[in-house]
Design brief:
homodimer, about 20% helix, alpha+beta, six-stranded mixed β-sheet, Fumarylacetoacetate hydrolase, domain 2, 23 strands, six-stranded antiparallel β-sheet
Amino acid sequence: MKLATLKDGSRDGQLIVVSRDLGTAHFATGIAGRLQQALDDWNFIAPQLQDVSDALNQGRARHAFPFDPAQCMAPLPRAYQWLDGSAYLNHVELVRAAGRSDVPERFYTEPLMYQGGSDDLLGACDDILVSAEAFGIDFEAELAVITADVPMGVTPDQGLDAVRLLMLANDVSLRHLIASEVETRLGLVQGKPSTAFSPVAVTPDELGDAWQDGRVHLTLQTSWNGRKVGMCDAGPDMRFHFGELIAHAARTRRLRAGTIVGSGTVSNPGVEQNGRREWPKGYGCIAERRAMETLQDGAATTDYMKFGDRLRIEMKGRDGHTLFGVIDQKVVQYTP
Amino acid sequence: MKLATLKDGSRDGQLIVVSRDLGTAHFATGIAGRLQQALDDWNFIAPQLQDVSDALNQGRARHAFPFDPAQCMAPLPRAYQWLDGSAYLNHVELVRAAGRSDVPERFYTEPLMYQGGSDDLLGACDDILVSAEAFGIDFEAELAVITADVPMGVTPDQGLDAVRLLMLANDVSLRHLIASEVETRLGLVQGKPSTAFSPVAVTPDELGDAWQDGRVHLTLQTSWNGRKVGMCDAGPDMRFHFGELIAHAARTRRLRAGTIVGSGTVSNPGVEQNGRREWPKGYGCIAERRAMETLQDGAATTDYMKFGDRLRIEMKGRDGHTLFGVIDQKVVQYTP
């Protein structure tokens, strides 16, 4: 099933069930008002939501209404936890190479992860508010899962069993702030403003065979100002699958239901072509593009995003239909 | 007023109002069931809670019951955000000196801060569950505030106005995991298990004159296995006050109501005594103690906490009475 949260003026919005084709929706009234409620008591509530979903998909829901992604908050508008991994090693290699720093050996055996802010997550069509272009405004096209309760010390397999829902994410990054913030060695606060999520969150069964080994074997499409910049394969190059990311996060503490875990920027390695390294699948963030330019020509020429820029992220199923709906955001100047 | 959250088997517990002397309590039923609800709508709900508080303190509350800190969850058992500063520079200087790394100049002008996990915060008397002593189990005695909604780009003064409640915190740290985790430059995940908070959260007026310039001018007392190890002055040595910490966190994003911001380990600089550097006020975490030993004698001799160890943190008002109640935790081995 597919779930979304409708803007209603409240902090947590209103939970709705959305049809598979994202054409229609139905309130979950009487079952659960908010997605967090459903996650808190999933085994009891999910089957009831599934009934609504079945009715919607069969065209027999009595109070269905047209689904409008622009009216969506993030599926979880405020979450108790947002942990973002960096599971595509090519992203790490590129960004590090451009910064002239090596990739430590351990990054190949242990997931990289940062703790993000989760109190104010953005809807798929919400503006990206930034006060200065000089911060180096970048996008990051990612996948993310929402978990059940996860006990401390789980195995990757057990971690995988805790995956309840999947989403797309745009993990907005302020590169020039990050460059200085990582020097504190305490992680990212100012460099990571609010993250945006796809209109709907879907249960793993909606992905069919494409959900395998804790990875989504589909193409993540990223467009920047209408130009397709990334057609990245989210499958095999994900070094650590979602169960491994969850197990990493739960090594020294339990994770509570509603924890969001991200994949990091989806990224595929380059290939040698005519004596030159090329990345035919494009990029999932501008930092990667700039790294490619630096490696190819010695200098980055692509600038970060400007006010007014648009960013679009989407993933289609094997049937060619959109799975999560479209993240479609505009960068807008914030003035206090 | 003083607020607490009683264990009732639910994820968020039950909001109660506690008398100034922590002797009695009263359910906030009919006003707000959970502290987050009160924070979401503070201007409407706080005056009603204040009425209950007044009745309690005047001994005219009709359904008062004895207050038991052992029955408390964290005042916010799961929060949408937990950001911990490192506002006492002496802590940073000590820990860095022991690790033979310099304190960058910027640390004196810009607050250090990390994003912590907030999905599973511990009550004041909850066990500290750790799977291995080899992780280097440490405590950190801190102050923390809970904020109202904070717009992006606020000034420190505006940040200070957003302080709704104050608490004590034990920011448990796994030193040997942190040592390796900071090398990722993405911050702390495994090195920071669940943080514990004092039984009650109090409004700033409960501190009287001791709450000044965004700082708490009182002594934070820390005992480890019954031995007083820290009598640290939380006031003047706090380089960045809570308004400055909040403004730092809100530079590139707004903070939503219920955000918890910590001070970092409360720590006072050493003094030269008989030709030797001494820290007469003691320490707020073992890492500091080990740094002091290293600076004095070339090697750390104090070990980190063992299973069965107890840790106690308290702060008394100028009248000698406990302000927040006592954090009193035991380290217990976790087995999955």
